[in-house]
Amino acid sequence: MELLLNAGADLGEGPAWDARRGVLYWVDIHLGCLHTFDLASGHDSCQEIGEPIGCVAPTRQGHLLLALRSGIWTLHLLTGTRTLLAVPEHIPGNRFNDGKCDPAGRFLAGTMDDAEREASGSLYSLSPDGHLQTLLTGLRISNGLTWSPDYRLFYFIDTPTRLVMAYDYDLETGKIANPRPVIHVPEALGWPDGMTSDREGMLWIALWGGAAVTRWNPASGQMLASYLVPALNVTSCIFGGPTLSDLYITSARHGMNPAELERYPLSGGLFRLQTDTQGLPTFEFAD
Fold first, then answer.
1. What percent of the chain clears pLDDT 90, i.e. is strictly above it?
2. Distance from C-alpha of 203 to C-alpha of 153, rounded to nearest angstrom
3. What pLDDT, on the 0 to 100 scale, is given for residue 78?
């Protein structure tokens, strides 16, 4: 486990690999910071967005998609111009959390009650033509999402349930069906947070409060491996790098007490794990 950046992020989240530019995007949600980590130079820059930012996704035209409290926007990297694409809901206490694009170029992102009290969150799917679908409702903490290598299955985490749910996924329409639990994360391991998948169909799950990122077999529900992270609250992970074999991992200091911070001083850092597998690419929005 390699520390790439001792960022001290409050709520580091949402890593997304941009293969075109060789950079990793990630966010500090409550601070409204969009981070860009350049793999070649090791330099990290932060752009203040001005409101909470849940996640980011690259687009096929070289822009970025931002899921902000106010809605889903595109950001033109050269000019800094933003364009509002959709406002899925008008719930004052809600904000966007995790999200990413599907292989067909749709953007899926979920909302949650920022106070983590109400089950007011939903999972939305925005098509490139502007069509907005509501895939799930009644969510507490909409979190990790990913697909199987053949794109026929969609996996999703609502953190308080401790479950990874699998759905049949229709890539042509973006609809989900036939929900069933495939993984239960025991309390002793922490809370399931962000998630990604590898080319073998295994799921990599970050554990909030668990100081680890874990690899699971969704067919059996069994944990295959656990990799310790020197940060208590591990929030998300994504494959990147030249061969998509490096796992980039975000973490948070949010909610930690002084004793926990003393034990895990690198919480809020950005980490990298070199693996012996390959991940799925970070899919782009088809703008």
1. 98
2. 12
3. 87
